Amino acid sequence: MSGEVLSQNEIDALLSALSTGEMNADELKKEESEKKVKVYDFKRALRFSKDQIRSLTRIHENFARLLTTFFSAQLRTYIQISVASADQIPYEEFIRSIPKMTILNVFEVPPLDGRILMEVNPNIAYAMMDRVLGGKGISMNKVENLTEIETKIMSNLFERGFEHLQEAWSTVADIDPILTDFEVNPQFLQMVSPNETVVVISLNTQIGEASGMINICIPHVVLEPIIPKLSVHYWMQASKKERLPQEVETLEIRVKDAELPVVATLGETSISIQDFLQLDVGDVVELNQSIESALTISVGEVPKFIGQPGKVGKKLAIQILETLKGGDEDGK
Asked: Which of these CATH numbers, 2.30.330.10, 3.90.180.10, 3.30.70.240, 2.70.98.50, describes 260-326?
């Protein structure tokens, strides 16, 4: 049930008015029973249901985890990224809410129409760039005069990070993110009309000691073709899908016909790079086992058998002597 929360003073005033007869309880009940008019703001049209917003939130929670892993590997420092909020607002309101000078990455996501905007707060964008260049990850704000090298470093980093959106969205659409524009002034960027509804997913981001927000702005035109896939009904149907018997049979046949490399290892050795560079035809490389020793036979890089070399006719061959214990672990 929706409604305003009254303060204690307002509750006391209401009870006082009822007790003195200034207000009639029957009139209040009559008022409640009448049809109420709800104010609707046409400038802020809600085009997505709460259910669809929740689905987008789940998708980008997965994206946040993928980004955390990616940036942790790239920057080698403490990274924590999580979804702070997801809301639908007019594009104009989103542009007003972000800094006047910031890092704006515009992506196309074919085969879907439209473009997605990823806004990165300069506080964390510079901390990332400082780490890439070998620094401690100290933030500084000079976004208004980025050099060409700084622009290239940051755009490459965010382009590679945004590629993980493909995996996060794989359950609803097979997209191929492409960076098409890099801008620092939101006023120079007009992706859609000012009143167009966009979904904004805000990500809390911690890079070492620097913190800020990454905002992902998705226009309605991008999500329109996949809106049915954002409903709970779609997810429930997808989870209950079972393989048909003929599908299982086809899968078994294909698994049996799958080709795996079978390799017999004659031995191993270690040599210096200098010796390796001086190797020539006719040179002898001494291995770590005798020619009389049994050989390890691997199937798909997993040791499976012990065998001995020989010949079948004029062809080289290997005879399997025994099966290695533990060779069938993990179903391999």
From this structure: 2.30.330.10
